[in-house]
Amino acid sequence: MRLTTKGRFAVTAMIDLAMRQHSGPVTLAAISQRQNISLSYLEQLFGKLRRHELVDSVRGPGGGYSLARLARNVTVADIIFAVDEPLDATNCGGKHDCTSGKDGKSGKCMTHELWTTLNRKMVDYLDSVSLQDLVDQQRLRQLQEASQAAQSCAAVRVERGSAGAPAASSSSVAAGATV
Question: What Gene3D superfamilies does the annotation carry (predicted)?
């Protein structure tokens, strides 16, 4: 069982939207460009998200999409189910007709309960993760990347310092000092 691109792209687009909606509606074209997702595919996904009242749309100049609820009130499960993503590890789709014996009778396969339990665990987990959790993780990641980039730039500046200048200590580089 795998999560398809439909679910992955919907969650990614919703994170992008949640991170940027503070300055007004976000266009699908902008999300498409930033996330490298087809605009027509995003239009299909956002139609479903709108029908499930996860996003609101604004038409006309300056239009776009915004969240219909606070990000902390939207779960990953809400997004996945809104775009009709199947989350089922069973072979029978939960219908209990996994096997068919030689006598023609159908029944549950020997691993049916295993896969049914996995389904419940997946839904419970996805229902425990809010869109706000993902936005917070992404913002933290961006801050860490920016900090690493700043440290790299500081180290390069120290290495390129003038020939007569003393080399900076590693502690001054870590503190962000430049020569």
Answer: Winged helix-like DNA-binding domain superfamily/Winged helix DNA-binding domain (1.10.10.10)
In a domain, 53, yes or no: yes
**Total length of the chain:** 179
| Bridge partners of residue 106, in order along the sequence | 100
Distance in Å from the first CA to the final CA of the chain: 55
Q: Which domain holds residue 127?
A: 5-157
pLDDT means per 10 residues, the chain with 179 residues, are 83 97 94 97 97 95 94 96 82 65 66 87 95 96 88 75 52 45
136 token code pair: 């917070």
How many domains is the chain partitioned into structurally?
1
Rounded to the nearest 10 degrees, how much is the dihedral formed by the CA atoms of 135, 136, 138, 139?
Answer: 110
